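It is worth pausing here to work through a concrete case rather than discussing structure prediction in the abstract. The textbook approach is simple: state the sequence, then state the predicted structure, then interpret. We follow exactly that order.
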Amino acid sequence: MRKSASTHRPVRPPHSPRRSRPITPRLGTRGQPEESRAAILKAAVAEFAEHGIAGARTDAIARAARVNKALLYYYFEDKDALYEAVLDHVFSGLRARVMPVLASKLPPRQKMLEYLGAYFDYIAANPRFPRVVQAEWMRSGAGSSRMQRVAKEYFRPIFRKLADLLREGIEAEEFRAVNPMDFLPSVVGVIIFYFGAAPLMKTLLKVDPLSVERIRERREFILDFISAALFVR
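Step two, the predicted structure:
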């Protein structure tokens, strides 16, 4: 009589626990709050620049940011709150760029040139920013609470520093005697308008006004143009 085949199985080594892989949260979840919020703001800048606050669509913003609408509303209560956050994003970045220059101990001429360069470079790096605010502010007017808040938090501190700089340069006889109420809006206009009109210039002139070469040439022109208008030779 044959012995039945042994059913004995070799003893396996004790099961070693699997190494847990780090979980990388998807952008569309709450697991990456800074990245998700930044992506939403970037997409919102593009949408508001193209369509204004009235025409902007939150589903288009969520799609461009690669998040779902529920997550967008988790970070921002509604479209108005998102627009307010975009304004803070735009102007806090500008303030962070130019205020250290205006607070420096540089001589008036050098400080003005540094300020102009910093302001121009910020807008050149973010050419959609002017279009985000212009149409809405022309529509809502100076009486809107939104515009008053932005003016108080961002515009007035910069304006005061610039007015002080102009006064200092005039007293040192380095600047012409200009009125800040006339000169400073003119500076803003000559810098901002170029970027706001860039799409039209590209169509009419058949050149790319935002190319690296054109931006470099425009920057040199701005500094020379404003220097000629302000500096005492």
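Step three, interpretation. Residues 1-7, 16-26 have pLDDT under 50 and may be disordered. The two ends are 121 Å apart (CA to CA).
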